Amino acid sequence: MEGKIRLAKQLIEHYLSHPVGLPAIAEEMNISYHTLRKWFLRSEGMSMITYYQIKRFETAKKMLEDPECAIFQVTHAVGFSAASNFTRWFKHHAGITPSNYRSQRL
Question: FRET label pair with 10: which of 27, 55, 56, 65, CA 20 to 30 Å apart?
């Protein structure tokens, strides 16, 4: 089970920039989505979607702290096609816009 959870986490992180959906990850692993969700929750203490959102947010914050990385690059790296959607999502999670977050960190 630990190996499957580790692989699921790696695949979730791999697909941050082009989300495929969590059921597709289970299918890629040749395991039922229901079983993978149950194992993941038991092992990690959080759902797969929560893990995905945390990794997405951590990646966005880390990239925003790099002055060489443009906001549109961050937008696409975490799976958004429009900067406005990314900005709305980021502000919902951080309480401030990506630009303001960057300004405070640099």
Answer: 65
Look at residue 102 and give its three-state secondary structure. helix
List, for residues 29-70, the tens digit of each pLDDT value: 999 999 999 999 999 999 999 999 999 999 999 999 999 999
Q: How far apart are CA 14 and CA 56, in angstroms?
A: 11
User: What digits encode the pLDDT tens for the residues 72-105?
Assistant: 999 999 989 899 999 999 999 999 999 999 999 8
Other C-beta atoms lying within 10 Å of the C-beta of residue 66: 13
Q: Cα-flanking dihedrals φ and ψ of residue 36, to 5°?
A: -60, -45
Q: Could you give the angle at which helices 33-44 and 48-64 cross, rounded to 10 degrees?
A: 70
Structure tokens at 42: 């038991």
Amino acid in position 88: R
